[in-house]
Specification:
Helix content is 38%, strand content 16%. It is an alpha/beta fold and 146 residues long. Strands 2-1-3-4-5 form a five-stranded parallel sheet, with helices on both faces. It has one domain: Response regulator (Rossmann fold), CATH 3.40.50.2300. 27% of the residues are buried. It contains four helices and five strands. The protein is globular, with a radius of gyration of 16 Å. The N and C termini lie far apart (43 Å). α1 links the parallel β1 and β2.
Length: 146
């Protein structure tokens, strides 16, 4: 059933066509705009051409692993929200999170609700990032961030 939250522009990166297509179908049905990439280099090309609210990437892909893709994305676009979707969550332990700059780790198999929750959290992160980037119009004496 479509959600009431605002539509998001989403990039799904996975080397498995069935996973990409299933996510695209479900997310499009929920009212989101979805672009697909089958590997890291293709995802980087798409990111260079357009902005995405969130990137969902698989971990285990040929050509470039998902953690390497996440590092490259964060280097080029530090504010980009990234969710790692993987069946190998054991390799992405909390102590290894510094080396893997993703915002969320989603383990396979997953429920669509988990994906939608990540999208909602990404929307909140993006909103906070936009608010931080905009200079306050309030005089310094009335700001609450002192």
């Amino acid at each position: 059933m479509p959600r009431a939250s605002p539509s998001q522009h989403i990039l799904v990166v996975d080397d498995e066509p069935m996973v990409r297509d299933a996510l695209k179908m479900a997310l499009t049905f929920s009212g989101h705009t979805v672009e697909l990439a089958s590997n890291g280099p293709e995802a980087l090309r798409k990111l260079a051409e357009q902005k995405f609210d969130i990137v969902f990437t698989d971990f285990c892909m040929p050509e470039m692993l998902g953690d390497e893709l996440a590092r490259r994305i964060k280097k080029l676009y530090p504010q980009q929200v990234i969710a790692m979707v993987t069946g190998y969550a054991d390799f992405l332990s909390p102590r290894g999170k510094k080396a893997n700059p993703v915002n969320f780790i989603i383990t396979k198999p997953f429920a669509l609700e988990t994906i939608e929750n990540a999208i909602e959290r990404a929307r909140e992160i993006n909103k906070a990032n936009r608010e931080k980037a905009q200079p306050s119009l309030l005089p310094p004496s009335t700001r609450k961030d002192k």
